[in-house]
Amino acid sequence: MDYQSLSDYPQGWIFRHRELPLEQALLDDIRPLTEASSLAFWRQQISKEATHAAHFMNDDWPNRNGIWQQKAEWQARWESDDTALPEELDFADWEDNITVYFCYDCHNVVQTTWGTFRQCWKNFLFYDDEPLLLGRRRMQVARFHSDGTFETGVR
């Protein structure tokens, strides 16, 4: 996979927002994929046809019946001073060093570790237009909605 610098990433502002500053070590662990690598990852892991979650087809795994098992809210926690992930999202068997992918659409995929994501999840959700969270070699997934809710499931 190829990466672009966070300063060149069009949505990079979410990680430099003055209200949610991040330490340099966290910034160094946030790695946006290039547009070509994002597209390849999206096509391989999410959908061969759809370019965004709003366009998923019936045969795309996020639209299959039975994938999404639990629904909860993220917005209230996001707006509070509490920095912890909502409990329903804190996958207990994911170690901090697991690679995760936060997928906004077919051109915007960001790689980081679970530990980094847990510390700066609020930054990732500044841009909340139906992104998906996937862990490398993990079956659990999460999908975030603009209405302040999210779903977790198993793919």
List keywords for this structure.
globular, alpha+beta, 4 helices
How would you explain this protein's 3D organization?
By secondary structure, the protein is α+β, with helices and mostly antiparallel strands. 21% of the residues lie in helices and 23% in strands. It is built from 4 helices and 7 strands; from the N terminus they run αβαβαββαβββ. Strands 1-4-3-5-6-7-2 form a 7-stranded antiparallel beta sheet, with helices on both faces. β3 (99-105) and β4 form a beta hairpin. The radius of gyration is 15 Å and the shape is globular. The protein starts with 23 loop residues before the first helix and ends with a strand.
In short:
With 155 residues, this protein is an alpha+beta fold. The chain has helices spanning 24-28, 35-45, 75-79, 114-124; strands spanning 31-32, 68-73, 99-105, 108-113, 132-135, 140-144, 149-154.
Major sheet: arrangement of strands: 1-4-3-5-6-7-2
User: Per the principal axes of the C-alpha atoms, what is the gross shape?
Assistant: globular
How would you classify the helix and strand content by structural class? alpha+beta
What is the strand content?
A: 15-25%
CA(first)-CA(last) distance = 23 Å
Q: Output the radius of gyration.
A: 15 Å
Low-confidence regions:
none
SS elements, strand count: 7
How many helices? The count is 4
Instruction: Return the average pLDDT rounded to an integer.
Output: 95
Helix content: 10-25%
The SSE order reads HEHEHEEHEEE
Biggest sheet architecture: 7 strands, antiparallel
